[in-house]
Amino acid sequence: MAQEHTVKAFDEDITRLRGLIAEMGGLAEVSLTEAMEALVNGNLELAKGVSERDRRIDSLEAEVDKLAVRVLALRAPMADDLREVIAALKIAGVIERIGDYAKNIAKSTGKIERRRQFEPLTLIPAMAEVASSMVHDVMTAYAARDAELAAVVIARDDKVDAFYESLFRNLVSHMMENPATISSAAQLLFVARNIERIGDHATNVAEMVYYAATGSYLTDKEEKA
To answer: In the 8-state DSSP scheme, what is residue 118?
Structure first.
């Protein structure tokens, strides 16, 4: 009976961990979407909401940390269960960083001048859409323990990197041709860099999901394939 109770308590802890991670991922995805909407439309109120939501993401990360440490200390999980707990602990930290990058993007909202005439601003949302889809799909992969979907997310990071390189060249050229826009273009470079880092972090989560699901890591050859 005692063993049955222990197993049930462990299952409840794991379910709770998964729920906290899922909530963090959902909030981070919403934050990125709203940060981009605020940036493009100059919506300072929406940008403020992104910053406020980041505090909730930070709070959830602290909950994950406490629960994961407690599970490790009290349940002494092994094999698959241990991978599950360690992955949750690491993923929470990565999602918290994604929330930070979304907050950084939102903070640029009030720093773009002559927004409607600033053509490079129209290039950013497509890049953000790819990064947002990576965050969405990696959280789906985490919930379903879907190693195959995690591998697809990892492969998609190349597209975000290509976007960043293209935007970097475009913005540098724009600054050279239109010195009056240097301040706004520099802000968009900062935004593009934050989106690129979100793609990298979604990839990190995907690698952890793949490991938690399979017990092995993707090799460089497999990632390219």
So the answer is: -
